[in-house]
Design goal:
heterodimer; A: alpha+beta; 18% strand; globular; B: mainly alpha
Chain lengths: 147, 171
């Protein structure tokens, strides 16, 4: 596969319309959040499909999860818009969600046909202390070696 | 949710379906022509829609098994009656219902089939969903998303099928 964005991958519906596909990703994220590591049948079901489809599923679930974070961030920032800063928790603040490209694929495939990139959102987390010290920490989300 | 994908989980509506299906069985057993008429009317699609919402019946805290078991039995009787029509058998077994609702499906005799693995059954199920109507798929997806399938007291196979369906519907 050539370089494609996650959006292009997840919107490429082979058999079902986009509404069904979106709901399926939502249901999958719900099950992962509810059952976590005990979701053995779900893991088994995913393991039986092709490597390429597994990547599509992981990218779709991650994208959905990041969109949830983005909504939370925007809601929190809107809530705190009256003040100079908005804290999500006692330890940190998510100030922005931006789009970046992340390479996916093992080293052996780095030059092969399976190598491609996905656009993901990068979550920037700034702690209260880092603000005071002028030291910003960036949380990078790495999706390498999914196999 | 659009109006055409609503379902009900009430015992009253589950009970109302049972006599309708019993009437269908009686009519189907009149002969091949009657069976063809019922098939043309979309009885198999109707059963697939019942399958879609069946978890909502069987897992509702309000609905005890004595209420939804007759509905399952009525569905089985309907498929069994349909399958007795030799002239329509190929159409019936080609319908996605027969691959998707394993509990309801009087499959052809085992000696006529090649041995199948669990993986083969899943593949057949996936192919069946791809030929089902979009409305049936949408109803199944809504039930998977909203019904509490994961804390149910039903057997494991329903959970496995639900997981496989979710994965299939991402394609």
């Amino acid at each position: 596969m050539n370089r494609e964005t996650a959006l292009n991958i997840t919107s490429r519906c082979q058999f079902y319309d986009s509404e069904i596909v979106d709901l399926a990703f939502l249901a999958m994220l719900k099950q992962i959040l509810l059952t976590g590591s005990s979701a053995v049948p779900l893991v088994d079901a995913i393991a039986q499909i092709s490597h390429q489809d597994i990547i599509v599923i992981f990218s779709g679930v991650l994208r959905l999860w990041l969109e949830c974070i983005q909504i939370q961030v925007q809601t929190q920032l809107a809530f705190c818009s009256g003040s100079h800063i908005g804290f999500l928790s006692n330890t940190g603040l998510i100030t922005s969600v931006v789009s970046v490209e992340i390479s996916v694929g093992s080293n052996q495939e780095s030059s092969g046909s399976h190598r491609f990139s996905m656009s993901f959102m990068q979550v920037v987390i700034i702690t209260e202390r880092q603000i005071a010290e002028g030291n910003l920490q960036v949380l990078n989300i790495s999706c390498s070696d999914l196999r | 949710m659009s109006r055409d994908v609503r379902w009900s989980t009430t015992t009253k509506e589950a009970k109302a379906l049972v006599p309708v299906l019993h009437f269908m069985v009686y009519f189907i057993l009149q002969g091949d022509l009657a069976c063809s008429t019922v098939l043309d009317a979309g009885i198999l699609d109707m059963l697939l829609r019942i399958y879609d919402i069946f978890p909502a019946f069987s897992k509702s805290a309000l609905d005890a098994p004595e209420h939804w078991s007759p509905l399952l039995n009525a569905c089985r009787s309907t498929v069994l009656a349909l399958s007795q029509s030799q002239t329509n058998q190929s159409d019936i077994f080609a319908h996605p219902l027969c691959a998707i609702w394993a509990n309801c499906d009087p499959r052809p005799p085992a000696y006529t089939l090649e041995p199948t693995t669990a993986y083969d059954l899943i593949v057949v199920r996936c192919v069946a969903w791809r030929t089902a109507s979009s409305l049936c798929i949408k109803r199944r997806m809504y039930v998977l998303l909203t019904a509490d399938l994961w804390k149910s007291n039903v057997n494991e196979i329903e959970y496995i099928e639900a997981c496989n369906d979710i994965v299939e519907f991402t394609r």
